[in-house]
Each structure stands twice: as C-alpha cells, then as structure tokens.
C-alpha cells in the first residue's frame, strides 16, 4: 500500500464538506457540485512531488529483493511462420546465466484473455505465450534469458541462434490486407457504424460540399518510464511490482494464465512514469513470471526502448474519408466520415476514429463507419484518446476545408452547426459549454487578425492561424469500491485500487476527501495501486476521477450514517439525517445550523471506538443511459512556416476547455498542456516506420522516432469554464485525453492558413509543406 502522508504539505486548516448524500444518476447530485469551500478547484501542488524529485518514489524496476535475477528477451525476425531450430547452448554457457527459456522448456500456460474481451481482461493479445513454435508477428518474444546482472542477460540473449521458416498466410502489406476483405469494426461491444438518412444522396444534392481523404500513420507508445516489473513467487502466491494502469485487472488476467486464485496474485504499482494506454499486460510480465517459477528466483524485467516497439502496441494507421455537404447558411445536410484501419488477428482494437463525428455537429444525415483489415504486426492498443485524437484530424480539417470553400469563418461554421441534443442518439446533453469556450478563446487568442491563406509574412516566415474542436466522451466504469477509515484522533485514510500515472490522482482525491470530511489535507491519507485494496478501477478513458469519486461518495455516505448512529441521542446532532449534515473542522455539523456540531474524536470516544471503517460500492454508471456526456475544447494554433526550407514552428497555442468542475487547477493545467504537447508530436513528427516487406518496425528508438522536445513547444495558454456537470460525481468530467484531441487538426489548419497548401497526411513534415 502507498501512504503519502510524509509528502503532504499543509494546504488548509479548515475544509467543509456539505451533505454526504450519494451520487445518484438522474437524481440528487453530489453537493460538492454546488459548493466549493477552499479545496475543490484550488491549485494544489502534487503531494507525491517531493518523493519523486528526491528519488524516494520507488518505481517498478526499483524494488530491491534478495537473490534478484535480470531478464532479457530475444524477438522474432519474421512476421508469420514457425521456429525450426533454436540453439541456446552458447547462451546457457555464458557468464552469470541462470536460465534460458524457450517454448521447449517454458511452463504450460493458458492464453491470456485479450483486453476488454471479458470484464477484467487486460492482455494486449491472446497469443499463447511461448507455448509452441508459432510466430505471429515480427518482434514476438522467442527466448528469455535470466542472469545475475542485466549486462550478462543482454549479452547471453545475443548468443541465441534461431532459424525460422516463413508461413504462407502472413500479411504485412496494407494492400494485401485490404484484398483479403474488410469488416466493420467493433468497439466496446458496439459496431462502429452509424447511418441516419441517406447521407450520400444528400451530399450529392448539397449546394456546397467537400469530399476529402486523410491519413494518419502508426504511432508507438514512448512513456518516459519503460515497461518494467519485479516479480517473486512465494509458494503458490505471485507478487508483482509492476508499472500498470490496472492492478486488479492484471491480477485477474495473470491468474487465468497460471491457473491461480485471483487472490494469490498480489500486484502493486505505486508510481507509473507515464501510461497513456500502454501500461497494461503484455507478454513480458507473463514471461518473467514463468521464468521466476522455473528458476525459483526473483526476476526483474525492464524492456529496452526497442523492446517497447517490438511487443507493446500503439496507435494503428487510419485512412479516412470526410465528406460534408451544406446549405448556403452553413448548416450541414450530410456528414460522412468513413475509412479503414489495420488490426491484428490476435486482439480487437480498431482505432474508432468516427467517435467525435457522432456528437460534435448537427446534420440532416450521417454515414459513419470504421472498416478493419487484419495484418501480422504488434497488437495495437489504446493510445491517448483512441479514435478521437486522429478522428478529429479528419473531421476538423474537413470543417476547415468546407468553411474555406464557402468563404465562411470556420469558427462561425462550427457554431452554426451546434446541436441542441446528441445528433445521433437523441439524448439530451448533460452539460455542453463548447460555444462559450469558442467565444472566450477567439477573443483571448486574437482570432480576428487571422487573415487569408498566405497573407501574413514575417521575413522568411509565413504566419498562419488555425482552429479545431476537440471532444472526448465521459466514461465511468463499474467496479468502484472505496474504504474510509476514520480514527478518533481525527485522521482519515481513503483506500481504493486506483492508479497514479502522473496525472495527480493522489492529490486530487486527497483534496476531495478532505473537503468532504471537513479535514485538512495533511489529516487525510490516500492509499491506492494495490490489489489488497478494494475496487477494480481502471486508469483509462479519462474516467478514473469519476470512478473513484463515486465510490468515495458512497463510502462517505455510509460512514456518516454510522457516525450518527454512534452519536446517539446525547449528541447535538441527534435527530439529524445523513443528508442534513456535513463535515466541518474535524467533525460533523448541521447544514442549517453550524452550532449543532460534534467532532469525530468526541463521537468515537463516547462510543469507546478507536476507529470506524466504512466500505461501499459506487452505483452503476446509469447516467450514461440518460445523457450524452462529453468534455470539449476549442483549440487555437499559430504556426510559422519558413518559405525557404519548409520548416514548421508552432509559435502560439491556446486551449479553451469545457470539462465541468475542475478539481485541481494546477494539475489540470498540466494535464491540458501535456495533452497538447503530445498532440503537437502527433501533428508534426510522430510516425512508426513499418517495413511492409518484413512486418518489422524499423525506427525503434527515440533517435529515429521523433517526439516534441522543449525547443519544439511554445508557451501554451490554457483556460477553462468551471461550471459543474450536474450528472457526474463532483460535477467533473475527464481531462486526461481531451488535451490531445483536435490538436492535429488545429496545427494542420494553421499550416494551410500560413502557406495556402493543404496537407492531409500526418505527420506534417517540411517536405509536405514545401
């Protein structure tokens, strides 16, 4: 368990939490939506910051265990085929080697259920892990070496000689995959297809139209912290310190592989150096656990940067068609967004790029569909804003192209097509503030100075301004269970199997709990990232804050009920119901009369209790059945394009966000800026080079796979509305993924405004701009 009390700084000596009635979808909202009393929305520094900057935060590859061995992997060099010979003799004789494991001596294991195929499934693919001679992609692990040091393991694996025979059924070319046929993709159990009226016919009749093709390339995860795990078997119990976004889901999945009771897999993940969808269960953890069992020694495995490219999935390529038809006033007759993505035969993760088009704009007809083809490659997976990040590139560039063709301002065109209700489901919006975000943002950014394409110049630099809308759905997954322990000395501990990947979870949740309980932040400990804690919360889909919050609300409601029972008739609180009291100055008080109060210490002392524990489940996320719920952004970008060299520099960027109640102004601003920076990489440099002859990634390093550095990033301005969404816990919607969404289009539209040339294929490199 992780307790951060040693890093907590005193923020406030007084916090009030109003009525503890639980979050009821479609019913009474959480009172923290309506009131703020010091902590909610404050710019609080991260409480884990001192641990990280001082080096005291232990990451997955930093847990010391006596008798440690170190793992190295060898990866296949064919995309589809079988191993016909494998010579491990030299590796086994190398200095320090403890074990060489291949399919010939690996323990028998069941295939891991692929992510989202079952409620707790987490594996990136369902390929049997080192169980036979079959090879399914170029980069699949075919051997593992354990040695006394990492250097010895790395050397020994280089001595293994593997001979392959290529299979006749391998597909590494996109054209060959298309020739085998396409299928409509399925995402979260629903087909990626929407048809409303006859969009093709209405497009043909529309007086104004565009019909354009856009493409986005493969992109790989490159978090600062490499994928790593430290493992040890304690009899039939497996202990894993991992870098993961889902401790409970990983424990269940690993248990399936090894035939264990889920309770016998104990996973902790206190600190994660970036996840973005990549820190789930891949083959390296399973292989390390198998090797640890064979060797009867603890194992540490940390992938090299190349290893991440070989076995950890990323974002797949997309080919998108965007066709828009409009009347003279700009209202859309037809919105068509279709195209193709590549997947693998061994998982089901299409890039759902049509998701933004389902709710962003009103139109009289829709045709939205993602088609999938199968290729032998590393299994693609979730990558920050899967679907939305690249789908908005096509959609929002299309909106810009239509506005230019019609001679309209692109922001005016967007506002003209603002829907009154969800245009494809008919549900009312829970809260929607994108128009206000546009109005505030355009004034702050100086949109009026934009000018015509190619009109603005500063020496050799052509200057352009572009815009785009971002949208990301609100999610709240089931499985939230929280425990609150309150002691008679006025301290509280909140525990839930949630995660901290750098987004400020521990800080924000400490703020929420302190405000709700009426305690100072230094009197609240937040425990997380341990399967011995309650709950099955996944850090993904920008939903963790809502999932944790709903569980904490439920546990707090139960806690207050029990406190009032303990207080009894001799208390100033006698006769009050849970919904009539709140937290204040280390105790409970009547909402309508603060003089009616009693401290937690007094209540527990009179009841002769040292502590009280309340644990409760969050209600099911029924709000999604009643409302269309989304975070939004209005994005503004200024670029400078060198007229001689084609070099592109982003000189200014503004994100104007509509995300409901902001819990922590400081960490939220960091999340928004981080997403925008990742979006600049998506727009201008990120691309995985895939050799279609061999199925091999040929730029598996940060020397050749480019991401933004300090000199690529200007000062980024972020602003937001802070109006609570009445149908979410705490009034908050997710912010982790909205930052990247729409950035690619904003940059592309700014480049067009600068040079008058439209680049429709990401990344926008100088050769495309010249």
Keywords:
18 helices, seven-stranded mixed β-sheet, 33 strands, 24% helix, six-stranded mixed β-sheet, alpha+beta, 770 residues
Please tell me how large the radius of gyration is.
27 Å
Main sheet summary: 7 strands, mixed
- N-to-C CA distance: 55 Å
Number of strands: 33
Main-sheet strand order equals: 4-6-2-16-13-14-15
Strand content: 15-25%
- Judging from the principal axes of the Cα atoms, what is the shape? globular
**Kindly state the mean pLDDT as a whole number?**
94
Quaternary arrangement of the chains shown? single chain
Detail the poorly predicted runs.
1-22, 24-28
Task: Enumerate how many helices there are, as a single number.
Answer: 18
**What is the helix fraction of residues, given as a range?**
10-25%
Based on secondary structure, the structural category is alpha+beta
What does this structure look like?
The chain is an alpha+beta fold and 770 residues long. The strands form 8 sheets. The chain has a 7-stranded mixed β-sheet, sandwiched between helices. Strands 8, 11, 12, 17, 18 and 19 form a 6-stranded mixed β-sheet that branches. Helix 9 packs parallel to helix 17, helix 12 (505-517) runs parallel beside helix 13 and helix 16 packs across helix 17. The longest helix has 24 residues, at 544-567. The protein starts with 15 loop residues before the first strand and ends with a helix.
